[in-house]
Amino acid sequence: MSEITPDLVRHLASLARILVTDQEVEQLAGELGVIVDSVATVTKAVSGDVVATSHPIPMANVYREDVILPSLTQLQALSSAPDSNDGRFKVNAILDED
Fold first, then answer.
1. Is there a domain that residue 39 lies in?
2. Which of 12, 22, 32, 85 could be a cystine partner for 4, CB 3.0 to 4.6 Å?
3. Residue 70 placed within a domain
């Protein structure tokens, strides 16, 4: 069992500058005790020879070479556009900016 006492909760609350009632102190002492006990249980379950991991399955990045391939010309890209101007797509303004 953890050693979270009402006096310790009052002390922590004063350090954090949190006003707590006697009822809240009792409730927090119980809740914090459960949390501390849970952390202690997990700590016991994990032995020192277990390597910390961020993923259970090893991951590796897969890279490919950047290869320049033929693509649409500017004229081809704009050929299906409803409207264009100076080689660019022309769209209606969506913001009320000047």
1. yes
2. 32
3. no
Domain-embedded: residue 16: yes
Q: For residue 89, which phi and psi values (nearest 5 degrees)?
A: -70, 140
Read off the tokens for 87: 């080689």
Spatial separation of the C-alpha atoms in residues 21 and 27, rounded to whole Å: 10
Q: Supply angle C-alpha 32, 37, 39, rounded to 5.
A: 95
Which residue segment(s) compose the domain that 14 sits in?
A: 6-45
Q: In CATH, what number is assigned to the domain containing residue 16?
A: 1.10.20
Please give the chain's pLDDT, 98 residues, in tens.
Answer: 678 999 999 999 999 999 999 999 999 999 999 999 998 888 887 767 777 777 788 888 888 889 999 999 999 999 989 999 999 999 888 887 66
Facing residues of 84 across strands? 89
Residue 10 within a domain: yes
Task: Provide the H-helix boundaries in 16-90.
Answer: 22-45, 74-78
Residue 48 C-alpha from the chain's centroid: 27
